Every structure is written in C-alpha cells, then in structure tokens.
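Here comes a specimen:
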Amino acid sequence: MTITRRTVLAGTALAAAPVGGSAALAQTNTATPSASASPTTAGSRQAPGFYRYKVGDIEVTAINDGFARRPLEGFVSNAELKDVQAAMQEAFLPSDALPITFNTLVLSQGDRLTLIDTGNGDMGAPTSGRWMENFRAAGFDPAQVDTVVISHFHGDHINGLRLKDGTAVFANAEIMVPEAEWAFWMDDARMNQAPEGMKGAFQGVRRVFGPMAQTVKRYAADKEIVPGLTSIAAPGHTPGHTAYMLSSGSGKLMVMSDITNHPALFVRHPEWSAVFDMDADQARATRRRMLDMAASERAQVAFYHAPFPATGHIAKEGTGYRFVPVQWNPAV
C-alpha cells in the first residue's frame, strides 16, 4: 500500500470527523408528530429514516444515519473542479459541497438479526448520528443483534460499534471483519511508520476494536459469512474493503459498500477517484468490475452513500453508468 499525501489527508478527515431481480420494497416511515407538537416543531424533522424490502425470504431494512457536507473542491482527486461542479449541476445538487449520506443494512432471517456496518455512532458530523434513533424506530433493539459484519474500517462504518465513553453498543453480537482490513489497520509497525496525519485513523480503529480484539472474528473473501451473505473482495478504497452478495431463493442483492461515493459522481464517472480511495488505480478497477457485473446481470444493488434508501439498479450509459432507484412499493 503506497501512502500518498491524499491518503494522509483522507485519513486525517476520517479520524477527525468519522464520518433479485427487483425486490419488492416498502417504506415503513409512518411515524407522525404527536398531537401536542406545534406546526413548526412538526415540520422540522423528517419521519424516521428506515426502509424495508425483501430479498427472497430475507427482509432487508435500510437504516439512515443522516449526512455530512463535504467541500467539493479537492473531493475528486483526478478531475477539474469545473467538471465535478457540472456533474453536480446535472444531478441538481449544490456546486460547493457534496451531501454524503450514510446508510447501513439490517438483515432479518427468522430469529437471526445481522447488521452490515454501524454508522458514525456519536463521533460524526452534527447532521449525522441518527442511526440509533432510526434503528429503534424500525422496531429493533441493539440487544437483539446476533452478528455485525463490517465492510471496512473507515470511521463512518465502525464508530457505531462503540460510544465515545467506551461503551460497546452491541454487547451480545459476534463482530466480523475482513481479514485483509484487520491485517492492515491493526499492524503496529504500519501504524508507527504512518505519516502523522494518518495516525488518527489508526488510533480510531484501535479505539473501536482494541477492547474486543480477542473476540473479533476475521473472515476471508469469497466465503459465506452468515447464511445467504457472501463476501466479495473489493480493494482499493481501503486494502480490505469488502462488498457482498446477498442471496435467498431467486432474490439477489449486491451490497456495494463504498465502491462509489455519491452515484451522481462515481457511477456516472467511474474513472474519477474520491479523496478517500487509498489506492486510486485499484479502486477504479474494482468499481468498473462491480458496476459492469451489476449492469450486465440487471442486479439490484445497495450503496452505503447513495441517496436514501440507497438501493436500485445500474444501467450502462455511454462510457459510464446510471443509478436507477428502485420504485417505492407499499408492500414488503
């Protein structure tokens, strides 16, 4: 892994502000303001951010953790700012900052509850940190969680495992992480040799995983790690970054993790590189491979950073691709 100045800057930002065929979908955001709420108060918040759909016999619930605004300048490391602004304008997004959303998944299989990533916890931007509120609104409790599967070790994916005060959030859950990701971030020599600006990212990983290091289970690529969920090596964004294929009956969902950041930029322009991609060349190759697979198979996909509920399909378009959201359906 070559550590560049951009890698250092990305690591600093993450440490400082951690941020089948088609499945039938159902939005269950039905909470309403209390009768005593004033009109102003009632209009100041959205309904809880959760969204359910089925993949075969598995019920998937997307849980939103809010968003963070990232200045647009410098975010795409290999494109001119004017070109990035043009892509934002085409997508009716602001031209000065990118609203990055955070979306985790809950898999319900009978009595078994599995999480894929955990959000920012209480370590993110003021506009994030909504995960637990939305998780509970969806009818779940942290004590019910059997397994937490982590895709990679950036703060917006792992900080929900442990609060600032050190409290473990999912005390009864088995924690599963990619073995390649663990090997990179938990290597003492690599941390000691890292540039100063990247040490915070290493320390953030140790804060989360250090107290549970003896019990964390490490999984390999291309293995079924829980029933119906198979890991797919997707390196580049980080050394052990992992995507997944969720399968049940004839239903399939490609869980793309951070293959792209916002689809308006990196699905439309897969040759672009985000500042967070630790190995830009490898990340681009992985992105092309996964997007090609999704488009050719007309597979349903889920992205961590797509607009909520962050699921849809990939269509080939010119030299790039287009993200097509799955249509809302009132029945699960």
